[in-house]
Amino acid sequence: QLWVGRGSVPYVAHLREEVAAAQADNDQARARNAQLQAELRDLREGLENEDELAVFDLLQKDSLTKTERDAIKKVAKDLLGKLSDQRFALDRLRTMATVQAQMKAEIIKHLFANLPSPAYDPEEINLKAGAVFAHIYSAGLGSGAPVKMRAAVPG
After folding, report:
1. Terminal CA-to-CA distance of the chain, rounded, Å?
2. Which residues contact 139 (CB under 8 A, 6 or more apart)?
3. What is the pTM of this model?
């Protein structure tokens, strides 16, 4: 019984291998589901990539109207467009204080000019600018993956 049939050592070892394989498959499926959920959120928000979504998340707040949320999406897209300039390349940003100061100034200027003024006071704008700069400094620009499913969705 120990070496042959149900409950034998080889049988139990085989079952353990099958369980491990099934767990690995489940882990892969969970990771893929998480990725798809993130892509669906990008699509629902109407954003092109993870960078835009990250900046949008940093700028938004619960009290915004739909119109203000849409304005924030545009602010995030436009800001990242401005900051994608080579002068703000990550290697330069992390090593040169002047580049850091220029980027901070660009973020602050853009947010003050474009965030919905009744929804954000100057102190909030400064806090949001600091959060956006900290995110870009740590994560970089252009690292956001494009939304792969966007091509399949009719515009």
Report:
1. 65
2. 51, 54
3. 0.65
Token pair belonging to 15: 């079952």
For 49, phi and psi rounded to 5 degrees? -155, 175
DSSP 143: -
CA distance 95 to 7: 63
DSSP state string for the chain: --SSSTT-HHHHHHHHHHHHHHHHHHHHHHHHHHHHHHHHHHHHHT-SBHHHHHHHHHH--TT--HHHHHHHHHHHHHHHHHHTSGGG-HHHHHH-HHHHHHHHHHHHHHHHHHS-TTT--HHHHHHHHHHHHHHHHHH-SS-SPB-GGGGGS--
Reported as a single tens digit per residue, the pLDDT across 81-133 is 888 876 677 777 778 888 889 999 999 999 999 998 888 999 999 999 999 99
The whole-angstrom separation of Cα 2 and Cα 10 is 9
Q: Which residue has the tokens 């900290």?
A: 134
